[in-house]
Structures are given as structure tokens and as C-alpha cells.
Write a structure and sequence with these properties.
This protein is an alpha/beta fold. Helices cover 44% and strands 11% of the residues. The protein has three domains: 68 residues, Multidrug-efflux Transporter Regulator, Chain: A, Domain 2 (Orthogonal Bundle); 47 residues; 198 residues, P-loop containing nucleotide triphosphate hydrolases (Rossmann fold). The protein contains 13 helices and eleven strands. Strand 2 and strand 3 form a beta hairpin.
């Protein structure tokens, strides 16, 4: 007797696919999947739904926008070629790195066969991982000069906290102490991003990269704006090894923020690390935080900033969750500045 067909609810399907339930809802909104409903009205995913969703997840992992995924699933395989080309380039880089390591091993073995034992430093270089940069400094006001240390720099680091928690001061100090870092402040929004547009006119290569990124984001549902172009001009420019961005969501509507978060996660692994201040749940979706991302919380009571794991029940998780709000809610406090009396 054949086993019964298994149907999963949204949370179970998301866990099996390795994505968030929010991602599954987005796929459904775009018409890419159509789960049936249970008698109680809940979404249920059968084998065909899971197979379709798994294909979407794989295409997204290759870097395709949702619009490109739609084309591929609609029998337009040409839309897949740019993503495969980029993936091939990443594999070539990894192959070159492994080839260098293999050459080192062969050289050591050849020396050993010739009676030349390898030096200890050669063995250490062979197996040791490159040391992670360490950032350490004394915290400025409103803290009491406590020591802050960051032992690992992730691909994306979100900095959050309530109004008046000192997160901007922390970000400025990080920009001072991170190796080859720059701080991108809110002046990027002046004149609807006029300075960024002038920069693009003077740099055709940068303009081409920004145009490509903007096209991907629009495919994801973003709206082009001066604020978005100014941000992309900084993100796509060659320059500082680390970039600290003040309130990354400023000037961007909710669909644009969600598209931007997806774009930042699909960047090349070797892309520069980003530190981003945010209080938007569209930018910092706690369900979507990956292993190569980090969250720094600046507590309301001015306790030292701390790293928070994006796991419900972990220390600081609820504090981070209460700092975040949807863009429509965040708009109510737009421009509010917390001032300490006296």
C-alpha cells in the first residue's frame, strides 16, 4: 500500500526549504506557488508545492530576482544565463583558491620525499584560517567608557536600539576603528541624492553597476528614488573596505526596503562588509537573519552594546524585536531626535 501524501503547514514547509514563512508568502503573492487551504483556512503544501518552492529557492540562491524567476518558470531559460555566469565565476574563484592549497600540499610532500621536512610555519599556514579582524575601543558617551570588542566581522551587521540609545555614536566610532572604513550619513539624501547623481555622471562604470542593481531591485518590487540611487552609488562604489550606513531605510518605502534586504543578501560573498543602523522590521527581518550576519543591540538603559542571536528566547532577542517596527509605524517618528534634559 502506497504511503499517504504528506502535506505540511507553512511553518513546516519553510523549515524544510530553509527559508522563512514570509518568503513563502511572498512567492505566493507573486503567483509563483499556490498552496491549497485546509478546512480551517490554513495554507498547506503538498509534494508538488514543495517541489515548485524548492525550485524557486534554488533560483533565488543563484541570484535571480523574482521577476527573473517568473521568466525561468515560464519556460524562458535565457533569463537564467546571467545568474549561471555569475555562479560560474564564483566557482572559478573557489577552484583557484583550492588549486593554490593543493599546490602547497604537493610541494610539501615533494620536499618530504626528498628528505626536507616542512617547517612548522609552513604547516601552520597550510591549515590555519586567516585571522578575523578585531575591533576594540572605549565606548563614548552615553556609556561610561566601557570597552567594546567585535571579534568577527560578518557580511551584514545590523545596529539597532531605541531612540537615544547611542547607536549613532557607536556607528561613528566603529567607522573610526574598523580597518579602511567610511561612514555614510543622512547627508546622502540632500537634494534628492543630487550629489550621487553627479557622481554617476562622472563615473560611467559605477553608473552601469548602479543601473544593474537598480534593475534587479525594481524587479523585486522596489521604487526608484533619489534616496535609493544615493545608497546604491555608495554600495557599488570601489573604496572603503568596510561601510557603516546611518539609518539605511531612510527615504525608502516598505517594498523597496524588502527588496534591498534581499539584494544585500545575494551579494558576492567577497563583497565589502556592511554595518547598517536600522529600526525597520522590513530591513531587519529577524526570521531571515543568516549565519553570516550579526545584530548589535544598543540597550535603552545604556548598558554596553551587545551581540544578539536572532533566536527567540536568546538574551536580548525581545529587546531587539521591540526596537523594530514596520515602515508605516516608523514614519510616525520620522525626524524625531531624543534629547537628554540638561
Amino acid at each position: 500500500m502506497a504511503p499517504p501524501v504528506q502535506f505540511l503547514n507553512a511553518a513546516e514547509a519553510a523549515k524544510r526549504l530553509g527559508v522563512s514563512a514570509k518568503a513563502l508568502r511572498l512567492y505566493e503573492e507573486r503567483g509563483l506557488v499556490a498552496p491549497r487551504r485546509s478546512a480551517a483556512g490554513y495554507r498547506v503544501y503538498g509534494p508538488d508545492d514543495l517541489g515548485r518552492a524548492a525550485e524557486i529557492v534554488a533560483l533565488r540562491a543563484l541570484g535571480l530576482s523574482l521577476a527573473q524567476v517568473e521568466k525561468v518558470l515560464s519556460a524562458d531559460p535565457a533569463a537564467l544565463d546571467p545568474a549561471l555566469e555569475a555562479h560560474e565565476a564564483r566557482l572559478r574563484e573557489e577552484a583557484a583558491r583550492l588549486a593554490d592549497q593543493l599546490g602547497s600540499v604537493r610541494a610539501l610532500r615533494a620536499g618530504l620525499a626528498a628528505g626536507r621536512p616542512p617547517a612548522a610555519c609552513d604547516l601552520i599556514r597550510l591549515v590555519a584560517q586567516p585571522p578575523e579582524p578585531v575591533v576594540a575601543f572605549d565606548l563614548p558617551w552615553p556609556w561610561g567608557g566601557e570597552r567594546f570588542e567585535l571579534r568577527e566581522i560578518r557580511k551584514l551587521t545590523f545596529i539597532t536600539g531605541p531612540l537615544g540609545s547611542g547607536k549613532t555614536r557607536l556607528a561613528l566610532r566603529l567607522a573610526e576603528h574598523l580597518p579602511q572604513a567610511a561612514f555614510l550619513g543622512l547627508e546622502r539624501l540632500d537634494g534628492d541624492g543630487a550629489a550621487a547623481r553627479a557622481r554617476l555622471l562622472a563615473d560611467p562604470k559605477l553608473a552601469a553597476r548602479v543601473e544593474g542593481a537598480l534593475g534587479w531591485l525594481i524587479d523585486e518590487g522596489a521604487t526608484s528614488s533619489g534616496a535609493l540611487v544615493a545608497l546604491l552609488a555608495a554600495l557599488e562604489a570601489e573604496g572603503p573596505a568596510n561601510l557603516v550606513v546611518d539609518m539605511v531605510e531612510e527615504g525608502l518605502d516598505e517594498p523597496t526596503q524588502e527588496a534591498l534586504a534581499a539584494y544585500l543578501r545575494r551579494r558576492h560573498p567577497a563583497g565589502r562588509p556592511l554595518f547598517m543602523l536600522t529600526r525597520s522590521s522590513a530591513m531587519l527581518d529577524l526570521e531571515a537573519v543568516a549565519a553570516d550576519e550579526a545584530i548589535i543591540l544598543c540597550p535603552a538603559n545604556h548598558a554596553p552594546p551587545r551581540l544578539v542571536r536572532p533566536v527567540p528566547g536568546s538574551a536580548g532577542y525581545e529587546s531587539v524585536a521591540t526596537c523594530l517596527a514596520a515602515p508605516a509605524v516608523r514614519a510616525r517618528t520620522q525626524g524625531v531626535i531624543a534629547v537628554r534634559a540638561g
